[in-house]
Amino acid sequence: MSTGRRGAAWRVLVLLGLGVLSGCNRESSQAQQPQEKAPVVLGPDDVVRVEPRELESGPVLSGTLQARRAATMRAEVQGAVMEMVVEQGQKVKKGQLLARIEDASSQDQLIAARTAVRVARNGLRVARSEEERNRKLASAGVITRRDLERAELSRYQAQAQLSEAEARLALARQQVGRTRLRAPFAGVVSERHASAGDIVQPGTALYTVIDPTSLRLEASVPAAQLNTLKPGVEVDFSVAGYGDRSFEGRIEQINPAVDPGTGQVRIYVTLPNTEQALLTGLSAEGRVAALRREVPAVPVSAVDVRADPPTALRVKDGRVERVQVTLGMTDELERLVELRSGVQPGDVLLRASSGDLAEGTPVEVRLPERPQESGPGVGGAGAPPPAGSPPQQPMPR
């Protein structure tokens, strides 16, 4: 082999060796670089968007709805229950008969009282006639003045006997009336406490009648919040079992004394119920509408209020970052808080349910698609979202 051919072969071998070394170095460099972590996928339940919401501030009230007017009808006499006329849940009119208690002895007393009244009236009639006759005889000088006075005294005694007999008759009638239980007002029988045949004593409960057209809620508020309360102030209510439906009531009375043990004041709120959509015994939660504003807000769960100052975890450019925020008014009933600074409307914040993600964690927010809107303009169909911001889909509250 000639010297020229050997030199060319060496050059080829050197080039091949350099290529192999370059590939090894590249593979070694790639192996030494840390791999990017896979982003954490967040759904609609994990994030919330900062957006204008209507917040209300005022004392929160909670309690059980009760009928504003209710009466427990009790037996006034001793005896056996002869009849229970109405059933539980039945509507009644004022004065309607509800129950009847045995009245045999009361009827006997009533008959005796009526007889005594008739006898007393006849005695008074005779005494008046005798007095009139004696007065004429005394005027003619046939009898003395003393005989006339005796006749007048007899008439006074007969009149007193009649008054006493009439009083006993009225008492006997009342006694018979007490054996009849009647509705004190128009309403609904909410409870039936006895049955026919029961032996009852005076004071035994037989029925409870309520007026369902007006309900009342009794609640307590801290004395420090009395400056926002006065009779007539509107109160918005939500009632268990009625979903998102709201009801409106008004403060009727405020107890003038503060409970020294709790430092709270008792207030009474009336709720019109003319359609009888609400039932007594339901739990209700309301708020005095003292202040109402539309401000950028998020659920309280999206803010770490334990930090000083409060902070929130925001999703920006696909990563988690912690920002300091300034809080404003709080809607205690809806569990919303105003964010005055630190974030902007449209920013996406992490809820507490998304877990404890560290700053810098890559995330991917998957939200439902927003329906397309027709028409050009800012925010219309085809308008791209701002650079670095997540898609502008509606977020759940």
Kindly describe this structure.
This protein has 397 residues and is an alpha+beta fold. Among the domains are: 47-55 and 293-365, conserved putative lor/sdh protein from methanococcus maripaludis s2 fold (Beta Barrel); 60-67 and 212-291, Elongation Factor Tu (Ef-tu), domain 3; 103-178, Orthogonal Bundle (Helix Hairpins), CATH 1.10.287. 25% of the residues lie in helices and 36% in strands. A six-stranded antiparallel barrel has the order 4-11-14-13-12-15. The protein has a four-stranded antiparallel sheet with strand order 2-21-17-18, with no helix packed on it. Strand 12 and strand 13 form a beta hairpin. Helix 2 (104-140) packs antiparallel against helix 3. The chain is elongated. The two termini are 86 Å apart.
Calculate the mean pLDDT score and round it: 81
Number of strands: 22
Q: Please tell me the CATH architecture of the domain at 60-67 and 212-291 by its name.
A: Beta Barrel
What share of residues are in beta strands? 35-45%
Shape: elongated
Count of helix runs: 3
CATH topology tier name of the domain at 60-67 and 212-291: Elongation Factor Tu (Ef-tu), domain 3
Task: Extract low-pLDDT stretches.
Answer: 28-33, 373-397
Task: Kindly state the percentage of residues in helix.
Answer: 25-40%
Strand order of the largest sheet: 4-11-14-13-12-15
H/E topology pattern: HEEEEEEEHHEEEEEEEEEEEEEEE
Coiled coil: 148-182
Pfam families: Beta-barrel_RND_2, BSH_CzcB
Region (Disordered): 352-397
Keywords: Coiled coil
